[in-house]
Write a structure and sequence with these properties.
Blueprint (H helix, E strand, L loop, with lengths): L1 H41 L1 H42 L7 H20 L7 H53 L1
Helix pairs in contact: 2-3, 2-4, 3-4
């Protein structure tokens, strides 16, 4: 009987040893995981990878801006030439529409990238060309009105001279 009791205690001890081993192993794994997490999370070498990703993203955005800027440069040059050659006295609605379309396309380049302050220059350039275009049309309209008023004044002066001549001729008779 004593033999049975000692065998029972041995089995119990093996179960306790197994449970103790599992407990210690789980504690070791948990503490190791927390330490590794803290080590890698706060380690500056680990943050270098995110800084590199940020630098790569920033470089890609700079490249995208340069491409957009080079595409817009050709558009800005042709827009400048079109507005400079624009003559409002020639009734060319298609040319006005083309200029307006190009100005809106330039402004749209900013609206698509409004989060980036560098694209604000596209908005400023489009506003400048819009003002220049409208000023050119308004200036032509005012000059045309002045020419028309001068012509009407000359016609009135000629008519007044003719009436004076008619009056002096009729008073002599």
């Amino acid at each position: 009987m004593k033999n049975k009791i000692s065998m029972n205690n041995t089995k119990m001890n093996q179960k306790e040893k197994l449970m103790g081993f599992a407990y210690v192993f789980l504690m070791f794994a948990g503490i190791s995981a927390v330490c590794c997490l803290l080590l890698f999370y706060y380690n500056s070498d680990f943050l270098v990878f995110t800084q590199k990703d940020f630098a790569v993203t920033k470089m890609n955005r700079m490249k995208e801006y340069q491409v957009s800027q080079s595409r817009a440069a050709a558009s800005v040059d042709s827009l400048f030439n079109k507005i400079n050659r624009f003559q409002p006295m020639v009734n060319a609605v298609y040319e006005e529409n083309d200029i307006t379309f190009m100005i809106n396309e330039l402004a749209n380049n900013y609206e698509q990238h409004a989060w980036d302050a560098r694209y604000k220059s596209f908005s400023h350039v489009s506003l400048f060309y819009t003002m220049w275009f409208s000023d050119k049309r308004e200036l032509w309209s005012k000059r045309d009105n002045i020419i028309r008023i001068k012509k009407n004044l000359e016609d009135c002066e000629i008519g007044l001279k003719n009436k004076k001549n008619d009056l002096t001729l009729s008073s002599r008779r």
